[in-house]
Amino acid sequence: MSDGAQSVRVASGQGFWGDWLEAPVLQVQSGPIDYLVMDYLAEVTMSILQKQRGRDPSQGYARDFVPLMGRILGTCIESGIRVIANAGGVNPLACRDAVFELANAEGLAGRARIGVITGDDLLERIDELLAAGVELRSMETGEPLEMVRDRIQSANAYLGAAPIIEALQRGADVVIAGRTTDTALTYAPMMFEHGWPRDDWDKLAAGVVAGHINECGAQATGGNTGVDWQSVDYIDIGYPIIESQASGEFVVTKHENLGGRVTEATVTEQLLYEMGDPSEYITPDCVADFRTIQLEQQAPNRVRVYGVSGYRATDQLKVSISYLAGYKAVGRMAYSWPDALAKAQTADRTIRGRLDRIGLRFDEVHTEYFGAGACHGSLAGPLGDDLPEVELRIGVKHSSERSAVERFSREIASLILAGPPTATGFGGGRPRVQEMVAYWPALIPKAHVQPRVEVEVVP
Predict the structure, then answer these.
(1) At 454, which helix (H) or strand (E)?
(2) Which one, of 57, 19, 282, 52, lies nearest residue 154 by Cα?
(3) CA 311 remoteness from chain centre
(4) N or C: which end of the chain has fewer CB atoms below 10 A?
């Protein structure tokens, strides 16, 4: 526990793996912050990382994190900025070792302490848990996990603040975790710095709200906004910073010398992101009631958040399980004026007819016409005959037979010469067959998940 800091600045540096590479660097260089938090993991990301680790035991983490540390770790150590990230994926120890190697090369041996959190990965424990009566039923369908047991690719429990706080208590300058809740990356340092009790539900709920605002990066500071988006400076957009008070109130802001915008509207848009029942935003540490959130525009780019209520945490953790759900391929072909839409529609009938002719059946065949209202569907209204160009996009899915999808991939290329005229833009060549990964959310009693924390000085 810290000494009850009156204010702590927690800056978001990333909202997903693939976010703007310069954002965390600008957060560190553009003004004072106390913590830099970065979220790398989505549900499907875990299965991708498991595949990488299966091919190479030294992989399975977000590799972008390591060169980023090469750019900012020295500055963070000198400025007292602590970094928290779930970049460890399914192999946090390998990620830690890679950061060790880089930090050593940067002359930081003996100067930086790296914490690593494990225990969320349940893949090797699935049979043990099932035997112990932990059914891991789908939260969406109620079906037992046995239905997809032979196709599971990853299984990770969402950890909360406790192991992050432990790493901070033990002096970690950088905390590398696997699957944590996105919000815990932000509210764990708030709990640590302010010394909030684990049962102060209102303050913890305020931290959860802060974490939800931070978790998607610039989406809270004008990115992806639907309000006056033309006036947003996207080139050097500033990412959000939470200025937290011990009382639980906080301000959402950004570095003044960067672009973007922080308003009640941008904060509200992010608060509504992926929102289910607003009265029960459930995390491992508390349940937050989003209906109680109050916003106030204090000044330009400063939104005060207050009044948040929370409730006792549940006795379970959510588990993100992914499994192989079949194979797919998506092909594209563009057609130009005149009669662009009619040509694309004829191409669609042609490829479907050829697949039927050779007896191929799929679980799903889906067609879209880009340039002809595909994004708006029926809302696009009646379409004329003078569309300058239309792109046909057709995809197929098969739950078990890769060979059927491979045949579709070969068939679609024939449209270039054996189909309607003006075909062009055969996007990327023959479409690639891809494995389809499905999401299986489940619950597990907390007693069955034991996080482990290690903190070591860079050797």
Answers:
(1) strand 452-457
(2) 52
(3) 26
(4) C
